């Protein structure tokens, strides 16, 4: 059992959703990103998505693009991402990599899987990879014992949703709206229905369903936690680092934000 599956199971045993936070590795630089991740975990994150910064982030909104651009400007490499994964795993949180497919393919699919597993990573979220085109990744992740998280969206047909859930391991990522990442005043009304449809597709496997895109405060986290297995937050963490005058302040604000979200998911205990 990966650390991811163990942390999700522990949250379920406690009758609550897991809190999953995202931060690009190397933002604002490698060592500073490790400190921010540690603050996220101290605040209550169960799982950390370590972003592999990429120059063509088709799914990312302006906040995460700014964070990724800063990481790229600082010279962050895939090896640096693995350094952040190793530090994340050392906190006890589950460490995932969130990456578009091209950097993994260029690194070498089998080599990336093996190196990630060696660093203590639990798996990878691949937002632009679909199961029909993932044969090499399925082989490599199986060989390395990694979880593979694919995305479903409100536009997914029932057949597409079922295929994606069957190919996923760890959890299935329910993208709550059609659009790019970023905080929003309200959680998309499509989120609950998408989770219900995913639950139907995962009835036999019991695969957790986690929701991301648009969650910006503790009240929204509680709302989503009432029906999902995990609450995913990214832009809100990145924005607090972008707005902070220094690293200490950034970590303080990130820790406080994580605590607010953690309180939210726990207030929705089922």
TrEMBL record:
The cross-references to NCBIfam families, in alphabetical order and at most eight, read: trpA
Quaternary structure annotation from Swiss-Prot or TrEMBL? Tetramer of two alpha and two beta chains.
Query: Where does this protein act, in terms of pathway?
Result: Amino-acid biosynthesis; L-tryptophan biosynthesis; L-tryptophan from chorismate: step 5/5
* EC top class, as a word: lyase
What the protein does comes down to: The alpha subunit is responsible for the aldol cleavage of indoleglycerol phosphate to indole and glyceraldehyde 3-phosphate.
Tell me which domain of life the UniProt entry assigns to the organism this sequence originates from.
Bacteria
EC number, UniProt record: 4.2.1.20
Q: Does the keyword Amino-acid biosynthesis apply?
A: yes
Q: Which residues form the active site?
A: 49 (proton acceptor), 60 (proton acceptor)
The entry sums up its family as follows: Belongs to the TrpA family.
Name the UniProt record assigns to this protein: Tryptophan synthase alpha chain
Question: What's the encoding gene here?
Answer: trpA
Q: Which UniProt keywords apply?
A: Amino-acid biosynthesis, Aromatic amino acid biosynthesis, Lyase, Tryptophan biosynthesis
Q: Which InterPro entries match?
A: Aldolase_TIM, RibuloseP-bd_barrel, Trp_synthase_suA
Q: Which GO terms describe its cellular component?
A: cytosol
Provide a Gene Ontology MF annotation, just one: tryptophan synthase activity
Which reactions fall under this protein's catalytic activity? (1S,2R)-1-C-(indol-3-yl)glycerol 3-phosphate + L-serine = D-glyceraldehyde 3-phosphate + L-tryptophan + H2O
KW Amino-acid biosynthesis (keyword) present: yes
């Amino acid at each position: 059992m990966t650390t991811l599956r163990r942390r999700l199971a522990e949250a379920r045993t406690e009758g609550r959703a897991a809190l999953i936070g995202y931060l690009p590795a190397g933002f604002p630089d490698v060592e500073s990103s490790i400190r921010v991740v540690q603050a996220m975990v101290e605040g209550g994150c169960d799982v950390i998505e370590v972003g592999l910064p990429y120059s063509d982030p088709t799914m990312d909104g302006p906040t995460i693009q700014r964070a990724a651009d800063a990481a790229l400007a600082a010279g962050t490499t895939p090896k640096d991402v693995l350094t952040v994964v190793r530090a994340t795993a050392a906190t006890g949180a589950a460490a995932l990599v969130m990456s578009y497919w091209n950097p993994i393919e260029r690194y070498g699919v089998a080599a990336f899987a093996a190196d990630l597993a060696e660093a203590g990573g639990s798996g990878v979220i691949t937002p632009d990879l679909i199961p029909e085109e993932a044969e090499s990744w399925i082989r490599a992740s199986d060989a390395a014992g990694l979880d593979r998280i694919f995305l479903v969206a409100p536009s997914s047909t029932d057949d597409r949703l079922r295929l994606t859930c069957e190919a996923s391991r760890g959890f299935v990522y329910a993208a709550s709206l059609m659009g790019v990442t970023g905080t929003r005043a309200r959680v998309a009304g499509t989120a609950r229905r998408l989770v219900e449809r995913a639950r139907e597709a995962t009835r036999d496997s019991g695969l957790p369903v986690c929701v991301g895109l648009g969650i910006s405060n503790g009240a929204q986290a509680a709302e989503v936690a009432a029906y999902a297995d995990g609450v995913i937050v990214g832009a809100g963490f990145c924005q607090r680092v972008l707005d902070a005058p220094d690293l200490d302040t950034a970590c303080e604000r990130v820790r406080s934000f994580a605590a607010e979200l953690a309180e939210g998911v726990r207030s929705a205990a089922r």
